[in-house]
């Protein structure tokens, strides 16, 4: 075992990792380029999302918005539609907002100053470090979940990786390990190592290119790391959605731009209170949210969906418009449209599940 305790051992680690990465890295459409815009888009998409899902979204996004100017000029609804299904929609809204700032204040060029780039909407320490190391070869260590896992096993870090107070410790460890000459390649190599070798379960330690430096492997403790705080049980919320028909059209409403699923369109919905049944909740929410009275209420189906921190169970009802003018309480817009027109709107996954039952 070669313990990571001296400048020489750190350099040996870097050399071994970079040599492995050069030979074994996966082909991805954002690799081998130095376009900061495309690197930025890829890094934002990769946050909390698996590579295999990101690739097709990235290619569609770049085809639609090939540069900062195209993204800044596009309506937000177009951006959200291309992003539809990728989740964490604040990422798309912040990309759009940041692109407009870059176009207006920086002549359409991604700021090559780290501090300036870091101040843009949606840019955190990880995104800033990843983009600036890869696109501008600047020595900033990126720390994501994969890299935290590698560091925890490599150095036997017993601080929980999902404890916010541990961020500084992991960042310091990554900073110390970073290859100053090839920071972009090194950051990508660390991410790749965590993704395909130093995996959460069943890491393939025997073929790891840096296992001789890994304290967890050398002491047969790799299954003990990283340490995580136990999550509380994920709550489940009972909701309703009301599909209100007015002739051949149905009513959809747009969520506020800030918050969960911001800017997306859906059928009027809300939580079921303990004192009411789902049908009563449907009538109440239609009255409260869009100010309409309805008739001929009919139960259609139940759909389920899981978010990161909670789950929802949605009872879906159809009904006929009876009276009233749309007056919104919560949503920011509403439209009467035919169901086949919904394909033109950015929709949450739950709404897609409802449509599968309706059509």
Q: Which stretches of 5+ consecutive residues score pLDDT under 50? A: none
Helix content: 40-55%
Shape, per Cα inertia axes: elongated
**Under the CATH scheme, which architecture of the largest domain would be assigned?**
Orthogonal Bundle
**What is the overall pLDDT average?**
94
Summarize the structure.
Helices cover 43% and strands 15% of the residues.
How would you characterize this protein structure?
This protein has 359 residues and is of the alpha+beta class. The model has no long low-confidence stretch (mean pLDDT 94). The chain has helices at 7-24, 36-46, 51-64, 68-73, 76-83, 90-105, 114-118, 125-136, 145-155, 167-177, 183-196, 215-218, 278-290, 349-358; strands at residues 236-246, 249-254, 265-266, 269-271, 293-306, 311-323, 333-337. It contains 14 helices and 7 strands. The protein has 2 domains: 7-224, Endonuclease III, domain 1 (Orthogonal Bundle), CATH 1.10.340.30; 236-358, Nucleoside Triphosphate Pyrophosphohydrolase (Alpha-Beta Complex), CATH 3.90.79. It starts with 6 loop residues before the first helix and ends with a helix. Strands 1, 2, 3, 4, 5, 6 and 7 form a 7-stranded mixed beta sheet that branches. It is 43% helix and 15% strand. Helix 2 packs antiparallel against helix 8 (125-136) and helix 9 crosses helix 11. A hairpin with a 2-residue loop joins strand 1 and strand 2.
């Amino acid at each position: 075992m070669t313990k990571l305790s001296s400048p020489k051992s750190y350099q040996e680690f870097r050399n071994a990792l970079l040599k492995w990465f050069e030979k074994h890295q996966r082909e991805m459409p954002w690799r081998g380029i130095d376009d900061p815009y495309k690197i930025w888009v890829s890094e934002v998409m990769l946050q909390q999302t698996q590579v295999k899902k990101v690739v097709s979204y990235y290619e569609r996004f770049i085809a639609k918005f090939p540069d900062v100017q195209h993204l800044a000029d596009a309506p937000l609804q177009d951006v959200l539609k291309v992003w539809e299904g990728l989740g964490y929609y604040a990422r798309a809204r912040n990309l759009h907002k940041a692109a407009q700032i870059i176009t207006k204040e920086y002549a359409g060029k991604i700021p090559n100053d780290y501090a300036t780039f870091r101040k843009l909407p949606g840019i955190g320490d990880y995104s800033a470090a990843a983009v600036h190391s890869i696109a501008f070869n600047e020595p900033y260590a990126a720390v994501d979940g994969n890299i935290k896992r590698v560091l925890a096993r490599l150095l036997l870090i017993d601080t929980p990786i999902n404890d916010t107070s541990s961020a500084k410790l992991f960042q310091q460890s990554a900073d110390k390990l970073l290859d100053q000459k090839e920071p972009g390649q090194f950051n990508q190599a660390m991410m790749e190592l965590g993704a395909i070798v130093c995996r959460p379960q069943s890491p393939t330690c025997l073929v790891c290119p840096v296992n001789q430096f890994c304290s967890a492997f050398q002491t047969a403790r790799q299954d003990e790391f990283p340490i995580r705080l136990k999550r509380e049980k994920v709550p489940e919320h009972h909701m309703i959605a009301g599909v209100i028909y007015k002739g051949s059209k149905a009513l959809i409403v747009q969520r506020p731009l800030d918050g969960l699923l911001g800017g997306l369109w859906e059928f009027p919905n809300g939580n079921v209170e303990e004192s009411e049944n789902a049908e009563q909740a449907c009538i109440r929410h239609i009255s409260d949210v869009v100010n309409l009275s309805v008739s001929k209420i009919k139960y259609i189906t139940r759909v389920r969906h899981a978010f990161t921190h909670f789950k929802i169970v949605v009872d879906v009802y159809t009904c006929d418009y009876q009276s009233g003018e749309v007056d919104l309480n919560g949503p920011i817009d509403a439209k009467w449209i035919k169901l086949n027109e919904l394909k033109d709107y950015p929709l949450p996954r739950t709404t897609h599940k409802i449509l599968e039952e309706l059509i």
